[in-house]
Amino acid sequence: MSKIARIATSHRGVASVRNQNFDYFLVLDFEATCDRDRKLVPQEIIEFPVLKFNCRTLDVESEFHQYVQPRIYNQLTPFCIELTGIVQDMVENQPNIEETLEKFDEWMKKELLDPGARFSFVTCGDWDLKTMLPSQCQYFKITPRPYFNRWINIKKGFADVTGVFPKGLQPMLQELKIKQIGRHHSGIDDCRNIAAILKSLLEKGYIFSTTGTL
């Protein structure tokens, strides 16, 4: 049965999500160093937020949120501050990327890494886990955990349901008539908005599957 057929034959609400391929979704949205007129090499993660979303209850059960101190371009540009709302004081004296990944792995062990727990990261696009994290890890010679190697691009699920591939987060919110939480390009706020879209698509009976791998 196709995904669209499953949508059409499912019931709305929690009952419709019981046949999901996963028990939990990890909603992730990095923010990174950037500038208006030049590409920074390397680009470095400065905000690392993840929400643990129960796909049966449709509730966010826990969150991991860490600001990260960049090493190379350690002074945030005015453009980056304007775009993300992250100011210099928010990243000063914070853990670096290695320390943040270790902290996140401890959180994962506490929250999810139990035998039989089925989970997937959910991102808005492929950039976070296909490009951003691998490129930074390669630059600093870090070996990322294997659980980062598979994810769901929520844009593809949205396109399956609506027939339109979205340009970004805000058009999805508008189409689904969801009020935006916080500010766009705040990583934690974007995660909360992605979670709201995720909930809406689940309530429509959509069955998610992995869309990206490394």
TrEMBL record:
Molecular function GO terms recorded: 3'-5'-RNA exonuclease activity; nucleic acid binding
InterPro entries: 3-5_Exoribonuclease (IPR051274), ERI-1_3'hExo-like (IPR047201), Ribonucl_H (IPR013520), RNaseH-like_sf (IPR012337), RNaseH_sf (IPR036397)
CDD domains: ERI-1_3'hExo_like (cd06133)
Residue ranges occupied by any Exonuclease domain in the UniProt entry: 24-207
Alphabetical list of Gene3D superfamilies matching this protein: Ribonuclease H-like superfamily/Ribonuclease H
Sorted UniProt keywords: Exonuclease, Hydrolase, Nuclease
Signal peptide per UniProt: none
SUPFAM superfamilies from the UniProt entry: Ribonuclease H-like
Stored PANTHER family: 3'-5' EXONUCLEASE ERI1-RELATED, 3'-5' EXORIBONUCLEASE 1-RELATED
Name of the protein in its database record: Exonuclease domain-containing protein
